[in-house]
Amino acid sequence: QVQLVESGGGLVQAGGSLRLACAASGSISNINFVKWYRQAPGKQREFVAGITSFGSTDYADFVKGRFTISRENTKNTVLQMNSLKPEDTAVYYCNAEVRLTTRATVSSWGQGTQVIVSS
Description:
- With 119 residues, the chain is mostly beta strands.
- 0% of the residues lie in helices and 62% in strands.
- The chain contains no helices and eleven strands.
- A hairpin with a 4-residue loop joins strand 7 (67-71) and strand 8 (76-81).
């Protein structure tokens, strides 16, 4: 079993920064990739950024140059968000594909963390 816990959300003014963290725990052998998604009220969940176990990164166009995803260690991933805009307001979710110690591979989601950017 895998648990993902996001933290770091909150209220910030436009132009400010927040640092989101995703902490994984459980019977983990390897985390193949970690992705951040977000969902604003009334909108579909959308991809924000992702990072593989090899360190390759990918970003949605609307965050390129402002957000940076990185892995602090084998189980913790960070999303640094700078130059925040009101349209970045959403619940941010962490998603990971994990290989368990049983060699099974599972996809797990966190519970989400709220980000509110005021104008």
